[in-house]
Amino acid sequence: MLLFTDVDGCLLNKHDYKYTDALPILQKVQEVKWPVILCSSKTASELTVLARELRLSSAPLICENGARIIWQGDGFGTERSTVCRTHRDAVLKSLRRLSKDFRFRSFTDLKLPGVMQVTDLSKEAAVRAMDREGTEPILWDDDPTLITDFERELMAEGLTLTLGGRFWHVAGGTNKGDALQQVAKCYETSMKRPLRTIAIGDSLVDQSMLDRADFSIGIPTPDGTHDVSISGKGMYATMPGAAGWAECVRRLLDQIHTKD
Question: What is the mean pLDDT of residues 110-129?
């Protein structure tokens, strides 16, 4: 079993970035030897630090919503990092052109002080958040009805626009679902047997990952609503953040243990 999880709003609380409520169940997952693959809009710099804190250094990291994969652990060959499809330079070039017709602010526009202000991150954490290779988050300042036109312009250049928990994310045709399949295939090749996948998410940027997993878990937003849909095998948590993450993973562990 491979467990793919979004970070902010799932494994980490949205309001305080804490994961305390998830730790006991995360430890049980590690005891049964399920690899836990962090899959987030966060950068490689950010996820590497978090993985070290959570003692997840033996599993790959899916960064920037699938635009970059860090191949931690053994059995994945000699290449340690993969940038999927489009580099950030191409994304920024398109955004510079579109800034003449639409009003938005990217991380590049905000610069370090602005990113610190809109994210409430420390200087060190904001530097890590800006260390991107395949995507660019933006804040939309224009008429909401124009977002469709903006997305159409991006699609014409082979780019995608996805709404995350706080920012819109511009990427080069990559998504979390593609990355899940790529990582799962590498695990199956390494272990020489088929493996089932679990995906946990809370926002639209997670939907492709939830759709492609064998079992999916939807985490509610802090106000109790759901921004993702779960079909087939899956469940919704009743609580947001780390508490909801722990609730559903505990239930899943109990179900599988009972079947076994």
Answer: 94
Single-letter amino acid code for the residue at 138: I
Name the CATH superfamily, with its identifier, for domain 2-83+175-259.
HAD superfamily/HAD-like (3.40.50.1000)
Tokens encoding 171? 């990427």
Residues 6 or more apart whose Cβ sits within 8 Å of residue 1: 32, 34, 195, 196, 197, 198, 256
Residue-level pLDDT at 194:
94
What CA–CA distance (Å, rounded) separates 53 from 106?
Answer: 29
Question: Measuring CA to CA, how many Å separate 43 from each of 30, 116, 131, 244?
Answer: 24, 15, 6, 24
* pLDDT tens track for 196-210: 999 999 999 999 999
CATH code at 88-171: 3.30.980.20
Angle between helices 241-259 and 23-31 (to 10 degrees): 30
Q: 183, 201 in Cβ contact below 8 A?
A: no
| pLDDT, position 126 | 95
Q: Do 174 and 85 touch, CB atoms closer than 8 A?
A: yes
Tell me the C-alpha distance between 34 and 243, whole Å.
Answer: 20
User: 205, 164 in Cβ contact below 8 A?
Assistant: yes
Rounded-to-integer distance, Cα 61 and Cα 134, Å: 14
Phi, psi at 34, each rounded to 5°: -85, 120
> What is the total residue count of the chain?
260
The pLDDT of residue 165 is above 80: no
Element (H, E) at 153: helix 147-156
* Phi and psi angles of residue 163, each rounded to the nearest 5 degrees, phi first: -90, 125
